[in-house]
Amino acid sequence: MSIFLNSDSRVIVQGMTGAEGRKHTQRMLSAGTTIVAGTNPRKAGTSVDFDVVGYGPAADRVKNGTVSVPVYATVAEAKEATNANTSVIFVPPAFAKGAALEAIDAGIETIVVITEGIPVADSTVFVSHALEKGVRLIGPNCPGIISPNQ
Description:
The protein is an alpha/beta fold and about 150 residues long. It has four helices and seven strands, in the order βαβββαβαβαβ. The chain has helices at about 20-30, 75-80, 95-105, 120-135; strands at about 10-15, 35-40, 45-50, 65-70, 85-90, 110-115, 135-140.
C-alpha cells in the first residue's frame, strides 16, 4: 500500500479562488490538510480566508477560527515561497493541461487532477510529461485522495 498524502504534504490548490476550488479547499482544511497556497495569475498577492475547526496540521495557522491562504501567480512562485510538494488542480477543462504542465515543470512531486471532461489529447500530453519527469500524477477526473490518520 502506498500513502500519497501525509502530514509532510504541503499542498497548493490550483484554482482555489474559483467556486469548486474554494469549496473543496474549505473541506480539505477542515479535514486537516496542510494547504499552503493557491494560484491564480489575476489574483496574485491576495489571500483567501477559510473558516475551519482548529485541528490537524493546519491548527497552528488558525486565528480566530480562520486560516488565510496566500494566492500566487504561478505554481513555481508558490512552491518557492512555501516549499510545497503537492498540488491539486480544480480548473476548468480548457485550462487543465496548462495547469498540470505548470505544476510538473515547477517540480511538484505529487499532482492530483480533479477536473473532469479534459480532452483526451490534452490528458495524453500532461500524463506523458509527468512520466518523463518522474512526477506522481493522480487523475484526471479523480475524486481526490485521502489518508486517514496522516
